[in-house]
Amino acid sequence: MKIAVLGMGTVGTGVVKVLNTNKEKIESLTGEEIKITHVFAKNVDKARDVDLSGIEITDDINDIYNADIDAAIEVMGGIDHTYDIMMELLNNGIHIVTANKDLLAEKIDDLTEAANKNNVHLNYEAAVAGGVPIIRTIENSLNANQISEVMGILNGTTNYILTKMTVDGWSYEDALDDAKAKGYAEADPTNDVEGIDALRKIVLLSRLAFNRKVDIKDVPSTGISNVDAADIQIAKDLGYIMKLVGISKYDDSISASVEPIFLKADHQLASVNYEKNAVYVNGNAVGETMYYGPGAGSLETASAVVSDLIHVLTQPANGNFQPAEDAVIKNKAVEYQYYLRFGDSEADVKKALDGKVDYKLNTAHESVVAVTAKLNIDQLQDALEGLDVKAKYPVIGDE
Ligand SMILES: NC(=O)C1=CN([C@@H]2O[C@H](COP(=O)(O)OP(=O)(O)OC[C@H]3O[C@@H](n4cnc5c(N)ncnc54)[C@H](OP(=O)(O)O)[C@@H]3O)[C@@H](O)[C@H]2O)C=CC1
Ligand SMILES: N[C@@H](CC=O)C(=O)O
């Protein structure tokens, strides 16, 4: 099989390394040689971390369109321009393997329609949780279940930052710089730290798990850029660990969100550290299941990309998953306990909350802190009226 690799950065170089290192194993599975004939990149003269001799490196996409290839691996990122490229390739009967959750979260239904029309694969295992095999697990291995919940730590960069701050006492800025240097963060890490990357992943997981087309604009997300180190420390003192968590539940409608959450320290997700990701899936036959592994990184992500390529060679392209119905997203009724940190005095907090909500007060820290009983968002807003709330996070795993 002849392939083009679009993008030769962290993931692209990992793909070349995996294909070279595991060549014999891969050929024994596929029964044929996988040959990279073309690489598409921005800067054709850039020194790369891998040997690309014998491969045509081009910055002209027409060279890819005119190439005699069977499949393209898209690991360049980007949305609009990359969408046009993928559509052109799919419509030319080229299989696509992609790690591009930014594009998929917006356009997966259009791309799938084009792939199915042209009877080619559109595979994207690497787009959610990097090296963790979760896409085909939900799509195939759990397809006998009605899935009621998907929940996970879905971004390696933010989990790396929060772990460095919680466990190693690093500053936010130092931890982010380190995540960038290690290749976990996106070229522009804004989407990582603002929760957008995790949002895109929970959208893709919800679509698969609940068999619904999910509009990303319907799912709220909050990142970690405004997290105060004081709350991470108080969380530890109270027996919680702060994690950026994507949650999606199905019960007639879908409730879904991404936000920093205080997890009880013995919660399964609380011990998922550094760049590792984990996804919890609850199905009505299998019950609770959990998938853990590297959420980012060169070889780690390439593991999923190359697996998708092997899938192209060993499985028929007989229809990529396409949900029939649109999702209805409703978050109003969701109830959580809440951690609250106030700028007010103990007396003022008590005056406002007493009689309205059940809560436990903690005055051992510089600020007054409370953990409430379960509340929905309207009840919470009502209880907090007039108070100076410095921090507010859902709490999971307390009951
Ligand atoms: N890094 C990770 O751990 C993970 C990344 N992903 C996804 O994989 C994709 C690639 O990520 P990553 O490898 O980290 O990104 P990098 O920034 O390391 O690499 C991007 C590559 O794409 C090329 N490229 C970018 N824009 C263009 C363009 N307009 N035209 C031609 N070439 C272009 C760049 O060329 P040049 O080198 O010449 O500048 C570079 O080689 C992204 O979609 C990302 O979200 C998914 C899971 C994990
Ligand atoms: N920037 C992403 C890379 C993988 O999707 C992350 O940090 O998880």
Judged by helices, strands and strand pairing, the structural class is alpha/beta
**Total domains:** 3
Poorly predicted residue ranges:
none
Query: What is the molecular shape?
Result: elongated
Helix content, binned percent = 25-40%
Question: Given the structure, what is the number of helices?
Answer: 14
Terminus-to-terminus distance: 54 Å
Mean pLDDT: 97
Overall number of strands: 17
CATH class group of the largest domain: Alpha Beta
CATH level-3 fold name of the largest domain: Dihydrodipicolinate Reductase, domain 2
Instruction: Tell me the strand order in the biggest sheet.
Output: 12-11-7-9-10-17-14-16-15
CATH architecture of the largest domain: 2-Layer Sandwich
Protein name: Homoserine dehydrogenase
Family: Belongs to the homoserine dehydrogenase family.
Organism: Salinicoccus halitifaciens
Domain Aspartate/homoserine dehydrogenase NAD-binding: 7-125
